[in-house]
Amino acid sequence: MRVEQIAVFLENKSGRLAEITRILAENEINIRALSVADTADFGILRLIVDKVDAAKESLQAGGFTVGKTDVIAVEVPDRTGGLASVLDTANDAQLNVEYMYAFVNKSGENAVLIFRFDRMDQAISVLQEKGFVLLSGEEICAL
Amino acid sequence: MIWVEEVESLPRPGLESIQLKRLQLQVQRVYETVAPYRSKMDAAGVKPADIRSLADLKYLPYNTKDDLRDNYPFGLFTVPMEEVIRVHASSGTTGQPTVVGYTEADIKLWASVMSRALAMAGVTRGDMVHNAYGYGLFTGGLGAHYGIEALGATVIPVSGGNSKRQITIMRDFGSSVLLSTPSYALNLAEAMADVGVSPEELKLRVGIHGAEPWSESMREEVERKLGIKAVDIYGLSEIIGPGVAMECLHTDRGMHILEDHFLPEIVDPDTLEPLPYGEVGELVFTTLTKEAFPLIRYRTKDISRLIAEPCACGRTLVRMEKVMGRTDDMLIIRGVNVFPSQLEHVLVGIEGVEPHYQLEVNREGNLDTMSVLVEVSEHIFSDEIRVLEGLTKRIQSDVKDILGVTCKVKLVEPRSITRSEGKAQRVIDNRKL
């Protein structure tokens, strides 16, 4: 149960993020979740969108370097300890988090946690064994 | 004071007859002992006996850094290795260094020309000479060192780096002469201000600066900040190292070439026709007396002009003007020769990196800095910061290993490097020289 995420290379200069969101808007692509990782010189924008291939192609056409990666989306109840329970499980299985970000779905009842682990297949089986709800890309877009 | 007045003030015909005799012997020797020279001369249809005047030099084939590379490392040496008592090396176009060798007589010759160069700057026995050129494979440090000793002055073999300690040594030892790259001289001036030592506390009188391009305004800055007379020195490892040409204290225009050992020509870099004195072109040298590694008509790629007018100092040696540029794309960064192609080689060597890059050179404060901009293609892109930072570190360390220069690496978006007519502009040199 993997979700496709696109990642975009961002040079640290003004207007780049605005340019990306403009391209996505023009192509009627909806952003479900995003995070920006940054260093002094560059950043990486990670996006979960409703139309992955269209987003990738339009950004490439706009001159951006775009990559596609698989991530895991875990749905947890939006209450104290929701994230901790997932991380405890990962820790017990000696999985490392490369990065993560989160958003709360529209109903406000559940939070969706996006993870990139060092060992993705193992992460999926461990989380499923422990009864966590993993969402597909379609499910995220339907939220 | 003139070190060897009988040579340096010779009327031109006398000097030229010495040059011709030495040239004939040298050509004969390389023809007999070095196969690449012999085949090149045979191909050009010229025999040693055809050299009957200095003007006949024009019949001899040129040599370039490529010839050195093709015969790497020792293929152009004229003597068996048992007679070579030292080698030096400088960086070459493909990451392969240019290797030069010296017999015992060559080391003595080098010490002699270097000591004559020092004498042109008024250095004498009793001077405390602070030698801040790097010691090692680079010819600067050791070349100057032996010349200082041959002159009978005191050498402080301090080499480069640790500016604060250098200032303490200059003050405590009473250094009167400074040998360094011009940018390092400015660096020392700045460090002096930091540690609270004023130029008046030092005995520095003269600075001898070379191994990198510098301007007249930089000279004024060095002179003002250190309270010294700053003079220019020229040399290249292929010819011998430092001590090929040197400015005297009587002129600000041009360096006297030690012509009794190094025969200069200026040629048109396109047609390769020799040009008369006064014209601007590529500087070409023939070593007249070197044993282990002589060079015939070596194209330096340096652009200069020869000045034949007599100098106020009394020397009849021709002068070469401060080098005005290069005929190739070589950059000199902190005394290190850097070719953009070397960088390309490093980048291609790193799996996945396409060589869409740009080299940016700046002078920050007094030191040259090099930044490498690399366009991030999809092959090297990762959604993980760790991976991209690992890539920049890898590039940085490979550049340091192969080019010998520390650089900053900046990853940039595709197509952000300026291209003109489809060809990327590889080098941006922002130094105001």
Would you mind describing this structure in some detail?
The complex is a heterodimer of chains A (143) and B (433). Chain A has helices at 16-26, 52-61, 82-92, 120-129, 137-142, and strands at residues 3-11, 31-38, 42-49, 66-77, 97-104, 110-117, 133-135. Chain A has 143 residues and is an alpha+beta fold. Chain A has two domains: 3-69, VC0802-like (2-Layer Sandwich); 71-142, 2-Layer Sandwich (VC0802-like). Chain A is globular. Chain B is of the alpha/beta class. Chain B contains eleven helices and 23 strands. In chain B, strands 3, 4, 5, 6, 7, 8, 9, 10, 11, 12, 13, 14 and 15 form a 13-stranded mixed beta sheet that branches. A four-stranded mixed beta sheet of chain B has the order 20-19-18-23. In chain B, α2 packs across α3, α5 (104-120) crosses α6 and α7 (163-173) packs across α8 (182-195). The longest helix of chain B is centred in the N-terminal third of the chain and has 22 residues, at 12-33. The chains are: A alpha+beta (143), B alpha/beta (433). The A-B interface holds A 5, 7, 9-11, 16, 37, 39, 41-42, 44, 46, 63-67, 69, 98-99, 116 and B 376-378, 381-386, 388-389, 410-416.
Please name the defining characteristics of this protein.
heterodimer; A: 143 residues; alpha+beta; VC0802-like; 2 domains; seven-stranded antiparallel β-sheet; 34% helix; 39% strand; B: 433 residues; alpha/beta; Rossmann fold; GMP Synthetase, Chain A, domain 3; 13-stranded mixed β-sheet; four-stranded mixed β-sheet; 32% helix; 26% strand; globular
| Strand-pairing-aware structural class of chain B | alpha/beta
Oligomeric state of the chains present here: heterodimer
- The outline of chain B comes out as globular
> What is the third-level CATH name, the topology of the largest domain in chain A?
VC0802-like
Largest sheet composition of chain B: 13 strands, mixed
CATH class of the largest domain in chain A: Alpha Beta
Please tally the β strands of chain B and state the result. 23
- Spans where pLDDT lies below 50 across 5 or more residues of chain B: none
Point out poorly predicted stretches of chain A: none
Overall pLDDT confidence of chain B: 90
Count of domains of chain B: 2
Mean residue pLDDT of chain A: 91
Terminal-residue CA separation of chain B: 32 Å
Instruction: Give me the secondary-structure category of chain A.
Output: alpha+beta
The value of Rg of chain B in angstroms is 23 Å
State which percent range the strand residues of chain B make up: 25-35%
Helix content of chain A: 25-40%
